[in-house]
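Hi P.,

Sorry for the delay on this. The queue was packed all week, but I finally got your sequence through. Input first:
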Amino acid sequence: MDNQALQQIKDTFASAQAVTIAVSQNPSIDQMAAALSFYLNLSSQGKKVTVISPTEPIVELSSLVGIDKVKTSNEGTDGDLVVSFPYREGEIEKVSYTIDGGQLNIVVKAGEAGLSFAEQDVVFKRGSDKPGLLLTVGVEKLSEIENLFPQDALKDVMIINIDNSSQNEGFGGMVLVSPKFSSLSEQVADLMLNLGYEIDVDSSQNLLSGIMSSTNNFQSPNTSYLAFEIASILMKRGAVRSVRQQNTLQADQKQFQPQNRNQQSRPQPQQAQQRQAQQKPSPTTQPTRPDDRQDRRDAIRESLRTQTQNRNENRQDLPARDVRLNQQIRPQQSAPQSVLQQSSQPQQQVSQSDQKPPSDWLTPKVYKGSTNV
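Then the structure:
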């Protein structure tokens, strides 16, 4: 923004005594925070400021300073007073007034059918004031707020259009529309700083809340560098990051953030200790000590000894036929007598031959192998 345009905006705000700030239907935290910050700043300068919204503020906006000043209609003190009540054909003959003791009495003379409405049906409404200066914040189309003002009431009114949406129609005498801003709150804060306005603690808190909401706690990829600079300035002026808002943003991020499979399968230290305590220790997984090895060997020997005793006891209980059958099945336990005799004959022959040497003992001999050539 050049210095000439900035000076024109500054002069427009300085000359206006009544300023109306309008937002769109169902405003966001960012939009309402920016509008209320302007309301607080201009009100501190002694100006008559009105904030209007086509819809009632929701509970999500209750933490913003000045939210109780938001109106849903442009009722002012300078407009006409309108007294309305139900009307049916033939009930009212005429309407007149009288002045009695400084009081204005409106007289509704009943017709032949009589008056059918009660006192609670009478409604007093204040007519809309014609705004001296209209400031729209986050309003893309002028048709969104036309029902807040009387017909043709905005023809001769200076309108300052502040928005960061590329869908803005560009209405108004001063168009401050720039999509480079990631939030309306940082855009309004930047404008106030360029105008030389003093931003108090309440305005700083509103603007910081709007920036955090629009940028998803500064984690949105569309967050501009100016958002960080403005946030640091606001925090220097007393704004603090809301703990409740941080917890809400962190919960939303955890709900939609994909978790790592390795982290899911990896048990926590406390859970791992509990599982190890519940599991039965296995000798193959635990390191063995020398004493444990000796105990294991003794246990194996005792088991083998017990198995051998059980076999012997079972064998003694077998009948004689089963014993003979067992002996036939296991011939290696008792060798046949013929085999023993054959094995003993060579020993006897060797012993007899040792007593008398052969006749050709001293005769030279030729070795004859067993292989045929």
